[in-house]
Specification:
Layout (H helix, E strand, L loop, with lengths): L8 E3 L2 H18 L9 H11 L9 H13 L5 H28 L4 H7 L2 E3 L1 H9 L1 H4 L2 H7 L5 H20 L6 H15 L10 H12 L6 H16 L4 H6 L12 H8 L19 H17 L12 H16 L1 H22 L14 H23 L6 H27 L6 H11 L6 E4 L6 H10 L6 E4 L6 H10 L9 H6 L3 E2 L3 E6 L18 E6 L7 E2 L1 H13 L5 E4 L14 E3 L3 E4 L9 H11 L14 H8 L1 H14 L3 H14 L2 H4 L3 H9 L14
Parallel strand pairs: 3-4, 3-9
Antiparallel strand pairs: 1-2, 5-8, 6-7, 9-11, 10-11
Length: about 700
Amino acid sequence: MSRRGGFRITGQFTWPLALVVAITAIVVYWLTVCRTITWWENSEYISAAATLGINHPPGSLLSTVLGWCALKISPLASRILTLNLFAGLLAALTSGLVAALALRIRFSAYRDEIRAKDSVPLTLATIATTIAALTLTFGETLWSYAVKFTPYVLTALFTALILWAMLRWWENARHRNAVGWLFLIALLFGLDFSVHRTNLLLLPGLLVWLLLGRARALNSFKAWLYGLIGLAIGLAFQLLIMPIAKSHPMFNMGDPSTWSRFWEYISLQQYGGGWLVNLYPRKGPFLSYQVMDYLRVFAANYCSFTGPAGVLGFLPTLLGLVGVVSIWRRDARLAIGLLVLFLLSSFGAIVYFNVPAGFFRSMDRHYLPSLVVFAVFIACGAGAVLASIRNFSGRYRSELAAVAILIVVGLPALQLARNFRHVDMSKNTFARDYACNVFSGLPQDAVLITGGDNDTFPLWCLQMTEGLRPDVSVINLGLLNTPWYVKQLVAARPGLPLGLTEDQVDQVRFSKWTDTTVAIPISLAPKHFALPDSTVLPDSVRIKVPPDIQGTYATAHLQLLLRLLEQNRWQRPIFLSMGVDQNMAQWLTPYLRNEGYASRIIPIASPSLNRQILRENLLTNYAYDGYADANIWLDDVSRQMAWNLYPAALTLADDLRQQGQADSCRMIVERIKTLLPPERLTPPEQLRQGLDYVCGGNGQAPAPDRH
């Protein structure tokens, strides 16, 4: 029995209860884990971990190294699945730590007992505290990143670790071993620099904790020494980037192999420099857009009014507020310290990230630290409610306890029910199918020019991790503006028709440009381009290349793309991905032939359609798993990537209609509607109308986009 009495037994329950939370989390995460690649950073970070390479600045070296180590000890054959499972493990550890943090804070009245045995009394309040920690586990944001490998779950884990170390320092602030906890806190902040830096927003909070917990520590030389040593060791881990880059891995973004390039890499020179600290002027309306972006994410996790919970979705927020009050009543200074961390990770994130108006993507991943801190409040609040009922001496004490337990247990269960369908990635293969579709439609030794993350990284990832289509050179058009990338291309692809030395690469830069007409000789037969044998090709094709910036300047990517065409002389088939912004290569538009997810550059203007190639790609070579299955959640990126196939289908259908083959036209449209249901993909209205009218159903068809 505890010294306060009641229906409880005392034992070492902090870590066993936290382990229960972690195991519960990992079971759910692994059931819903993505079995293959997904969009955005997942493909990139998997590529980096699989090759022990360098991802885009400022990098996430610790995620890469940990992922690489996980691959070395994993018994699984699939490296992609291994890394996605590893993300679930990290997220589960975060959930367990949140439970342990809340238990330790809730029972701070037993500080001497906790310090001696790391134990807490097992009561209904303890159980409620533990269960309520699952609100983070089954919240939308952590769960959505727990099923795919990125550094963001590691960021959340570091938030929990930093909180744990700070709480242990708080408990031991007046003891000699307190400096050891300061060393660990500083070490974690330093290491977090090589994760994703978001937790650095919490660093001013450490100063507040020192002032509140033991201000004399600021005058201690030993405390400062330990802290600086810990921070230096943590930051020094980032230096491993240079030897890794010097080993020339397959994936080497920025090539930070020298001191100068290392500095450019970590200070984000590629994106404008200044460490991206740009707080003013605001890039978007502060309240209506930037603050609302955070509030949308917070509400989706802790204050949602949709789904099975209905209006009860506000209860996690209410429990969080109760938790703050309960901590305040026990230790007001600790409550202030925790509130400061929450404000820094929420309001501070809003101020720091300065999201531009209409930004294409939410900053949800960068709000994870604030969600972790608030999850501790929620768990403490649940324990406080049950403790209050335990001390209640009224008539309906048992009934109140039963209702409270039902609510506490029900909240994670309702979150689980609400989020499961759209977070479950176990059957999501959209990104992999896209990459395989693109590769299946390309001839041998093709060169594919891509435009963005989502039409590039899935292709690179499958090439690096599974050896898929090594003959295809995938070139990102935007990265051609960076000399390090062009040098890597020249070194990794010696057969690539660029014909540049490293010194010549450095000379290709943003420069003045006037309208230039280039003549590229043609010495190949029409069949090389899959054109009819009756096609008469000229001796050369003359292409007019205007400046692409302000009518005066040419980007490096324009000059290099032009050089690629000139040096290639039509030997290797060159394609433009559907992800390439037409403004980046508008001068090539007249020479493009739509072949599905990519358009081939043909040496005649307005080339005739090759119906056989386009038809085989759309109806035979391409896989559409999940698009017509209402049981599989269709995310926005997968939906929009599939939209690119509607213009291809319209081009084919329109060509058949013009040839008098109305039945074939309708067959193509109906088949595409079956494979890619417009009511599920919700494409732009022009594409919807095109599918309805292209075969002459109710009016004039909109002209299809032949690119």
